[in-house]
Design goal:
By secondary structure, the protein is mostly helical. The chain has helices spanning 3-35, 45-50, 54-58, 60-63, 73-80, and strands at 42-44, 70-72. Helices cover 69% and strands 7% of the residues.
Length: 81
């Protein structure tokens, strides 16, 4: 394989993976917004239950890093790193 093609493929791969990751973060952000019915910027256990967010519910204690009873987008992002 010509080196230039190799570079092109790795660039395409890089573009693809970074875009996929960005999409996931946007996805999570939208989900948090959707679940956050009282608009305090985070998802409480009650909100997670009401919105059927099983993944947040099941990992609530782990996700709520500062233990304030609310899972924020930042906390989810920190765990997804
Ligand atoms: Ca909330
Ligand atoms: Ca928290």
């Amino acid at each position: 394989m010509k080196p230039i093609i190799k570079i092109f493929i790795s660039l395409a791969f890089y573009w693809l993976t970074t875009n996929t990751m960005a999409f996931t973060v946007v996805d999570i952000a939208n989900r948090v917004k959707e679940l956050d019915t009282n608009k305090d910027g985070g998802v409480s256990m009650t909100e997670a239950e009401a919105g059927n967010a099983t993944r947040i519910k099941d990992h609530f204690e782990k996700l709520d890093a500062n233990k304030n009873g609310v899972v924020t987008l930042e906390e989810i992002k920190a765990l997804n790193k």
